[in-house]
Design goal:
With 126 residues, the chain is an all-beta fold. It contains no helices and 11 strands. The chain is globular and about 40 Å long. It starts with a strand and ends with a strand. The relative contact order is 0.32.
Amino acid sequence: QLQLREAGGGLVHSGGSLRLSCAASGGYFRFSAMGWFRRAPGKDREIVVSLGWSLSDRYYADSAKGRFTISRDDLKNTVLLQLNSLKPEDTGVYYCASRATMYSPATSDRGAYNVWGQGTEVIVSA
């Protein structure tokens, strides 16, 4: 069964950068759409970015456009999220998720993802 594990979170000053990684094991995720979600303090989990099985298919939340970049390394079974120009409002726990359906497109629909990692915390200080 597919399992996901995030890493790379931490404390960073406003304007700084972080690179989050999501390592997949126990399954084959190459043809599954992947997503990164964020749960800010006191808020619901929300989409940050999604990558469809076709690597040209990406969905970025408005808050992520121009600052965050998602990529995937199929040889390493890893999905990366590059976070640049971080702001205090980017603070939260970031989750990696995989869609259940193969050959699926990118989507912001949280219910479309059936496998989730445990999350990695990002704290951006002002």
